[in-house]
Specification:
Blueprint (H helix, E strand, L loop, with lengths): L1 H8 L9 E2 L5 E2 L11 E9 L2 E9 L7 H8 L12 H22 L1 E3 L2 E3 L7 E4 L2 E14 L2 E14 L4 H11 L14 H11 L3 E4 L7 E6 L9 E5 L6 E5 H9 L10 E4 L6 E4 L3 E3 L11 H11 L3 H15 L5 H5 L7
Antiparallel strand pairs: 1-2, 3-4, 5-6, 6-8, 7-8, 8-9, 10-11, 10-16, 11-14, 12-13, 14-15
């Protein structure tokens, strides 16, 4: 997001479609106006009404040689020369790979070397608050006389974009076999710890105010929303007071919690004491599940995604057509064409 904002707002990058690999490398069709000079460009990002300033350092490092790749694979009738330095060859392939992926990342959800599309129906439910998303795996490979784009269908489990309360209820019903959970009572320590294990590290969206902000869960404190307190300074020169989360939401946002006996999620940095009631949180969509699936979930996923070879090949061709590689501005800017 920062690099994209920079490329859109800074006039020094107009007239080109540079691509960024998400780490430290940027590729451009031609030299930028500042040449070999190192520049520090400022980028202002507005998030939830707050402006954050970032400084991006850019400096030319090297020129990528397509001629080396042509010689390596024998393109254009050249004699194949596999003895060329592999570091230079791989650098060129890496740049081409980045160009192809850059535009896709804005239209799909990237996961490793795969890209996924948010399903219109939410995906196939496999339990545990998870759903299967379909996508495709992409890799660029050198072959005799030409480069090949390898695409295959892919599938993985994502967390469903749902209210955190619903996720808790699903966990209690499926894992604890509690088919009639009562949220008007505090969670047991065992239930809270199990819930904590599931949600730590997840991004949640705060739903009690606009614009909605996203936070990463760092803890599930043992106290309920009506018991958990944190320091509040009501006036600039006044003393700090300790206020419960339930009382704070009543005073600040004018809402009475429906489930004050449930715990809160602690988000952001630990020292900032940011707590959110479960009922005002929803799981942000587009988060891949990194934990190991249960046997039941794995079996359900395989049954749903298994297909015969001809069907798999047809699906792969559909993916190529739907990806619209040749219509990507960055692909066009670098003069690359993908045949189908």
């Amino acid at each position: 997001m920062i690099i994209q904002k920079l490329l859109e707002s800074d006039p020094r990058f107009r007239g080109q479609q540079p691509v960024y690999d998400g780490r430290k490398n940027m590729y451009a069709r031609a030299m930028f106006p500042f040449g070999n000079e190192r520049i520090n460009a400022e980028v202002i990002i507005n998030e939830a009404g707050k402006a954050r300033k970032f400084v991006v350092a850019i400096q030319w490092v090297a020129r990528v040689s397509m001629e080396i790749l042509r010689q390596y694979i024998g393109m254009d009738g050249r004699q194949v020369n596999p003895s060329l330095g592999m570091d230079d060859v791989m650098c060129t392939i890496q740049s081409l790979d980045c160009i192809l992926r850059y535009g896709l990342a804005s239209r799909y959800v990237p996961v490793g070397r795969s890209f996924f599309t948010p399903p219109a129906d939410g995906g196939y439910d496999i339990g545990g608050g998870l759903a299967v998303w379909r996508g495709f795996h992409l890799s660029l490979r050198p072959s005799m006389w030409r480069m090949q784009l390898n695409i295959d269908v892919s599938a993985t489990a994502f967390f469903k974009g749902q209210e955190l309360i619903e996720f808790l209820l699903t966990m209690m019903r499926e894992q604890l076999k509690n088919h009639h959970p009562n949220l008007n009572y505090p969670l047991t320590d065992a239930t809270r710890m199990m819930f904590k294990k599931e949600v730590i590290g997840l991004k949640v969206e705060a739903t009690h105010c606009e614009p909605r902000r996203k936070y990463r869960v760092i803890n599930i404190p043992p106290l309920s929303a009506e018991q958990l307190t944190f320091p509040v300074q009501r006036t600039e020169d006044g003393p700090e007071e300790r206020v419960s989360v339930a009382s704070y939401f009543q005073e600040r946002h004018g809402v009475t919690l429906r489930f004050p006996k449930l715990p809160c999620v602690q988000v952001g940095k630990k020292e900032r004491h940011t707590y959110l009631p479960l009922e005002f949180c929803s799981i942000a969509s587009g988060q891949r599940c990194l934990k190991r699936l249960t046997d039941v979930q794995t079996s359900s996923m395989i049954k749903r995604t298994a297909s015969k070879a001809p069907e798999r090949a047809n699906n792969s061709m559909k993916l190529v057509r739907n990806a619209h590689f040749n219509e990507e501005p960055s692909v066009q800017d670098f003069g690359i064409k993908i045949s189908n």
